[in-house]
Amino acid sequence: MSRSTMSRSGCALCPRAVDFDSAWAALECGLRRVVVSPAVRGAPAVVEACPLMERVYECCTAAPAPYIAELHARLRAFFEAHTDQQFDVLRAHTSDLLEEYLRLWEAFAAGCEGCHRLFRYFNMHCVTKDTGGYCCGGVGGSPQAAPAMHDVVTIGLVAWKQRVYSKLRPHLIEATLDLVRADRDGDAVSLHPIARMVDCLVLLGSIRKNRELDLYQDDLEFPLLRDTVTYYTVESSQLIVHNGVTAYLARAESRIAEEYGRAKRLEQSSLSKLLKLLNTVCVEGHKNEISRECMTYLRDRNVDALGRAYRLLARIDDGFGAVLAATHGWIVTTARASVVAAAPGTADALPQRVVAALITARRDACSVVRGAFYDNPLFVAELDRACHAVANDPQLDGSPSRTPELLARYCDTLLRKGSNRTAAAAATADTLESKLEDRIAEVVSLFKYIDEKDVFLKFYSKLLARRLILGASVSDDAERSLIAGLKNVCGFEYVNKLSRMLSDMAVSADICDQFNTLLHSRTGPHPLGKGARSTN
Fold first, then answer.
1. Could you give the CA distance from residue 145 to residue 147 in angstroms, rounded to a whole number?
2. Is the pTM of this model over 0.90?
């Protein structure tokens, strides 16, 4: 490289005199190609960008004084003139204004971004960082006070907002809301323009630092939420009046799902606000009607409708109060009715009938709580309270409940060999051999609700002793399984006596076997053996 070339290259970065009008003419031509020409919209090619970026640098570092203020003013005038032209185009547009506006806006936004890259040096070194700041006076120069100056993108956005959007705002917002209304009414419309309009408002709002969403919220979000309240207030009231609560539940669920999908086109912060409004209008506003209808669903065991009601009421605070009370009343009523219906008959079969009725009533209630309320802890607790009330109901003469005694005798029937076991199996509609563990688990579940557990233990221990002495127990494993369940409810001390009874019988049987083996080896078979447990 020659010295003269090196000299020219080294001086290229030094401040020097610039013909600003000539430099701006070249810059304006490049800006016009980037912003206006569809073929060059966006960032220009590198071969075009380098000369333009060099001219920007020369204007910003010119000697004896840089042309920063002049460059800023020319940029603003350029964008204002261009946006005025775009407004004239839109004002003459007679059909589908929103689509044409978005088309021109997206082209303009891309062009602004391309211009912003061309003026990178200007944006980095000559732009006011905040209100009351300074702009650099050039390479090696001292900062000098200057009016607030913005980067190129901000200049373009301000021009578009003031000279295009603000003049068309009512028409654009109304057209956007019309798309939402049409989609809610079931018309075949594209929602993509809504998302594009949201992007436009968010980008235009970015002009205001730390308040970027104000424009979007004031111009689109608030009117949309207001329209949502009005629309669904009218629709929900009419639907309940003309079609009833059951049809409304299905419609409300589908409507909320539709709005959730529609809200994905909005800014992310709008989703929670929209869903909160929907919950207030569609659920809170009709909570009483839904809660009253749940009583009918419980009586009819309409799990599907109950599930829909539950899912809707779960969206609001304190939505379950009336339904919880209705669930408690339904369980108590149906369980008591089952017990009353099972009472007539022979006294010997009373334990099987009454306990089987209680178990069946609890099983049905559990099915509803699981299927409709998804085992919500509030409803599970209400189920337990209702079962506790029924299990401890006093007798008609006011004497204490017989449930502890009946449950103990039911266990005896369940775990004892003989004809009574078949009757117990028929009472529960199950084959005892294949469902014994399930029956034992249901007994333990019912046992938890009994207040007089000492009374149960008194009867159960006597009946267990009789089964063990007579060798009438269906199996030692079944006995231990039930005792283990009782232990889980009441602890080791409660079942200590029962466990010792089983252990003592096992030790006794082992001693008898050993003694019988010894006698057999000496004198032949002896009548004292395993059958001894079956003699009176």
1. 7
2. no
